[in-house]
Design goal:
Elements: E1 2-4, H1 10-20, E2 28-30, E3 42-49, E4 52-53, H2 59-62, H3 66-69, E5 72-83, E6 107-112, E7 119-122, E8 127-129, E9 134-139, E10 144-147, E11 155-164
Antiparallel strand pairs: 1-9, 2-3, 3-4, 3-5, 5-11, 6-9, 6-11, 7-8, 7-10
């Protein structure tokens, strides 16, 4: 697992953040935060899945250095999650983004859009805090869970699943 703060240049990140936090950015209700049934609901925005672009907002990332910095060869999925605040920090369902067979050679990166007291917990007990413009990168097969926030009006992340360029 690798955590990088100030991942994108400030101007590039602020453009992404401003658009995603605006009242013009479309969010869609999802009853569950993962394919594992839990009682944590969220809003989502699908940018790309199975290599197909589903949102004109995808250009926010292609117009930045994000995919170069992630060393992306082939993007499999790109999805934003918005979790509303809870009275206490709730750990969602532990999961992988794909089934075990689909995780082979896939890397997951999470870009935190806003700072809050939520984050991402990993099965080994590690917690990565939600810090604006932070990226955590890990093997897709690593089990993780979202953590809701209590101190802000929302927790926003963008999840990228991809194949890396071979070195």
């Amino acid at each position: 697992m690798k955590v990088i703060d100030n991942f994108l240049p400030k101007d590039q990140f602020n453009k992404i953040k401003t658009v995603m936090e605006s009242d013009n950015f479309p969010w869609y209700w999802n009853d569950y935060s993962t394919y594992v049934v839990s009682d944590v609901s969220q809003f989502v925005h699908g940018f790309l899945s199975k290599g197909k672009i589903h949102s004109g907002f995808f250009k926010l990332f292609t117009e930045s250095d994000l995919f170069t910095k992630l060393n992306t060869n082939q993007l499999i999925r790109c999805k934003a999650n918005l979790n509303y605040p809870t009275k206490t920090n709730i750990i969602g369902a532990y999961h992988t983004d794909f089934c075990k067979e689909e995780c082979k050679d896939v890397t997951t990166s999470i870009l935190y859009i806003n700072s809050n007291n939520g984050g991402t917990c990993f099965e080994d007990g590690t917690k990565v805090d939600s810090v604006s413009n932070r990226v955590v990168t890990f093997d897709c097969s690593i089990i993780h869970a979202p953590v809701s926030c209590t101190d802000k009006s929302r927790r926003i992340v963008v999840n990228f699943n991809y194949l890396e360029n071979k070195k």
